[in-house]
Amino acid sequence: MSITSNSIRVYVPRDASALSLGAEQTAKAIAAEAAHLAVEIQIVRNGSRGLFWLEPMVEIETPEGRVAYGPVQASDVASLFAADFLHGGNHDLSLGLTEEIPYLKRQQRLTFARVGITDPVSVEDYGAHGGFRGLAAALKISSADIVQQVTDSGLRGRGGAAFPAGIKWKTVFGAPAEQKYIVCNADEGDSGTYADRMIMEGDPLVLIEGMIIAGIAVGATQGYIYLRSEYPQAFRALNEAILAAKNAGYLGTGICGSVHDFELEVRLGAGAYICGEETSLLESLEGKRGQVRFKPPLPALKGLFGKPTAVNNVITLASVPIILDKGAEFYRDFGMGRSRGTLPFQLAGNLKHAGLVECAFGLTLREVLYDFGGGSATGKPIRAVQVGGPLGAYMPESQFDTPLDYEALAAVGAMLGHGGIVAFDDSVDMAQQARYAMEFCAIESCGKCTPCRIGSIRGVEVIDRIVADQDHAKNIALLRDLCDTLLAGSLCALGGMVPFPVTSALNHFAEDFEPRALRAAS
Amino acid sequence: MARPVIPIQLRNEPENNLPPDQSATVADVLHRLKGVPGALLPILHGVQDALGYVPPDAVHLIAVALNISRAEVHGVISFYHHFRSKPVARHMLYVCRAEACQSMGAVALEAHAKKILGIDFHESTADGAITLEPVYCLGNCACSPAVMLDQELHGRMTVEKFDSLIRATRQTA
User: Measuring CA to CA, which residue among B23, B84, B82, B12 is closest to residue B57?
Assistant: First the structure.
C-alpha cells in the first residue's frame, strides 16, 4: 500500500475487542478491494472508540471530519466501496460523523482523548494530537511541583483503592534511595473492566508519558509495566510504542535533552488474579509466588527489590499527562465531592450498548445503564448490577439512582473499584452468583490467610447446602458469620472484600436463597 | 539484589534427562534472561513459549542458573495458573468463566464446550488438537461471552460460532 498525502485514510481498529469481532478480516478485505479497484488508500489501525456494539467500526477521513460505518464485516466491504464510502457515501451501515454519535458526544474524554483517533504506536501522530505536552510542562518545573500538581488535581488511584496519587508520590519522592521504581499495575483482572486494555492498545504512549512524568517526579529511573498474560494484543502494542518512544528520544538517557533518565520494560504476569494486589504484584515482579506482603512497610518506602516504589494503575498514570498539560484545576473541576476528574466507566455484560463511557464522577447508575447502555441486551429487565469487579457488591434496582462516586457507593455498601459495571437480566440466580464469588476466591487465593484460603471453599459448601435446603436458617447464619471472618481476618482485598458480592446478594436478593419449596411456590 | 551467592551443593542431582533439543532451548533461554532483575517469570515464559510447557526436568537447570532451590522454582510454577508442567495439545482454548460472560450465557457455553470436545478443563482432546482451559476475564466484557484460541480473541460467542471455530481449528496443524 503506497502512502501519499492525498491517499484516503481508512481507520480500522486493532483493539482486541474489535479484533474479536472480525476487524482483522475487515481490514484485509478493505485492502484487497482497494487494490482490486486500484484506489489508493492508507489503512490506519487505530484504537477503539469504545462503542462495541458497532465494532468493527470503520472510519473514513473526509473534509467534514471522520465518518463512521459499523459494524463492518468483511462481507460488507464490497457494498461499502460500491456506495463510495471512501467519500462518506451513504450505506446501511452509515453512522454519520463519528464525533456526532450521541454516545460519544455526551462523554467527557480526558484520559481517553486520543483513543480511537490516533495511530497508537506513532510518536508523530501522538505529538500532533497534544501528546508529550504534559511531559514538556513537567520538564520545566521541579519534581516537588509535579507532585504538588498531581496532589492538587485530586487524582485518586483508579485501580480500585482510590488512594490519592499525589500523596503516594510524595512518599516515594521523600524516600532517599539510589534506585527507585515506577511500577504500572496493568493486571486488570476484574471481570467487567477493560479500560486499561483499551488505553494500552489504543494510546499506549499516554501511559508511557505518564510513567516518564512519574519517574521524574519521584526520582525513579526504571519503570515496569506488569501486564496480565491474558492481554497479548496489549503486549504487542506496548512493546511497539516503547520502541517508538525510545527511538524518538523519550526513553533512555537524557530524555528530551534533559538530565533525566528513564527506562521502561513490560513484564508479563502468569494468570494470577491476586497479582493485581500491589504487594503481590511486586513479589511476582521479583520472580516469586504472588503472595501478599504485610504492610507496613509501604511499597512507597520498601517496594520492588526493597526500594521505594510508586505502584499505580494504568488509568491513574495515563491521566497524569493531561493534568500536567492543562493544570490541576482543569482536572479538579470535573467530578463531585472527593471524587475529582473523570472515570472511564466500562459497561459490560448484558447491555445493549456495552462500551466505554468516560465521564465526570456523579452520573447515576441508572443513567449509565439506560441512557448509555440502552437497557439489557436480551430485552429483559435488568435485575442486578455488579459494580467494581468480582469483589464488588451486587446492586438491586432500588439502588440504581446512586451517583457513581467513591463515597456515594461506599455509603450503600458497594464500591466503585475500577469502574466496571456488569448488568444481569432477570434470569440470573443470585445464589449461584454468590457461590461463584466464593469459588473464584478459592481459585485465586494466594493462600497466605486462612479465612481466604479455606473459608472460601467452606463458603461454596455452605451455599450449596443452603440451596439444597439443609438446615436453611442455620446455614444462612453460618454464611454471614463466615463473611465476617473473611472481612476481618484477611490481609488484602481478595479475602477482605469477597463478602461484598455474597452479602449483597443475601441482603438484596434473599428470595434466591429461600428454601426450594418456597421458591417453587412463588 | 544483595543476595549472598552460596553455590548450591549438587548432591545426588538428577541427570539432565531433557531431550537434547529441549535442553538446548532451556539453556538458550537461561543464557538470555538469567541476568535480568526478577528473572524467574521471564525465564518460565521463555521456556513455555518455546516448548509449550515447563518440563519438570527443566526445573533443576533453572534453579542452578538462578542459584535458588528447586522447591522455589516448583513453587512458582505451581502458583501461577498460566504455567504448566505437562505437554498440551496443538491449540490452547481458553473459555472465560467470569461474571460479564456469565451474564451472557457463559455457563451454558462452558457446558457445551466440554460436551462437544468430550473433555473437562485442563484436559486435551484425544486427537491432540485442543487443550481446554478456564480463564477469569479476557477483557472482552463488552462482547461477552468470550473465548481465546491461542492468542486470538473471539467475542459474542454462540454455540454455532463455537462449533465452527472448533471445526476450523481441528483442520489446522
Answer: B23
